[in-house]
Automatic annotation (TrEMBL):
Belongs to the aldo/keto reductase family. The keyword Transferase does not apply. This is Aldo/keto reductase. The active site is at 52 (proton donor). The lineage of its organism: Bacteria, Bacillati, Bacillota, Bacilli, Bacillales. PROSITE patterns: ALDOKETO_REDUCTASE_1 (PS00798), ALDOKETO_REDUCTASE_2 (PS00062), ALDOKETO_REDUCTASE_3 (PS00063). GO terms for molecular function: oxidoreductase activity, acting on the CH-OH group of donors, NAD or NADP as acceptor. Residues 19-260 form the NADP-dependent oxidoreductase domain.
């Protein structure tokens, strides 16, 4: 078990279980240094988006890292204002140029924009058929969005990336995705650090001689959820990756599950 440990998507493509998210990482030097540092530590999955405005830097860092392109899994996303069939194809080309890579590993619909996400998905299916992306998926989709999408989809989403952390343990969605062979991926897995002082997490951190952040990332890992904690600091990136030398008991997993409060740090997918 390590940062190269993968889960297999329903089309056979493998995705690392733990990666780096770069939301709100400033474009320019900060973004380049953040990605290079992560790759140097051993991260092999980088998650960006058109909306983050740092795709160019992510591509630059990958090229300058010395790590083989085929060993890195790169995700980006189409933004809400670019949705619709033609717009999405154009938006993809823009992301593609900014990243400067030969292909993208995973392309996601960033939010379920009403009246548009089905046409957006058609464009993603086309990009997949053309071999420009190795896998396609969605982000911030509830069960009803997935059901609606799959009524007309030729290809089922391979990933659904959603806000997911102990205070937003979306068990129904997790079970639905598992039963439909859609991999769930957690953004904001640490709840934007807003409750790392929770007594349960602190108690478990003491028990396992780990930090509350490491307890949460390990919890994701054992739930078979792809997780992409963000940090610009090298020592934090190392800390977030240091989760492979212990295992939470079933009882402790349940304790963390029970922290759910349906508490969101970001918008609700029905009201964004």
């Amino acid at each position: 078990m390590s940062l190269t440990t993968t889960l297999t998507l329903h089309n056979g493509v493998k995705i690392p279980k733990v990666g780096l998210g770069v939301y709100k990482v400033e474009k320019g030097t900060e973004a380049v240094d953040t990605v290079k540092s992560a790759l140097d530590i051993g991260y092999r999955s980088i998650d960006t988006a058109a909306f983050y405005d740092n795709e160019k830097e992510v591509g630059q860092a990958i090229r300058e890292s010395g790590v083989k392109r085929e060993d890195i899994f790169v995700t980006t996303k189409v933004w809400n204002t670019d949705q619709g069939y033609e717009n999405t194809l154009n938006a993809f080309e823009e992301s593609f140029q900014k990243l400067g890579l030969d292909y993208i590993d995973l392309y996601l619909v960033h939010w379920p924009v009403t009246g548009k996400y089905k046409d957006t998905w058609r464009a993603l299916e086309e990009l997949y058929d053309q071999g420009k992306v190795r896998a396609i998926g969605v982000s911030n989709f509830h069960i009803h969005h997935l059901e609606e999408l799959m009524k007309d989809a030729k290809i089922k989403p391979m990933v659904n990336q959603v806000e997911f952390h102990p205070q937003l343990f979306q068990k129904e969605l997790l079970d639905y995705c598992k039963s439909n062979d859609i991999r769930l991926e957690a953004w904001g897995p640490l709840g934007r650090s807003r409750y790392l002082d929770d007594p349960v997490l602190e108690e478990l951190a003491k028990k396992y001689n780990k930090t509350p952040a490491q307890i949460i990332i390990r919890w994701d890992y054992q739930h078979d959820i792809i997780t992409i904690p963000k940090s610009t600091k090298s020592h934090r990136q190392k800390e977030n990756a240091d989760i492979f030398d212990f295992e939470l008991t079933e009882k402790d997993m349940n304790k963390i599950d029970e922290l759910n409060r349906d508490y969101r740090t970001g918008p609700h997918p029905d009201d964004f």
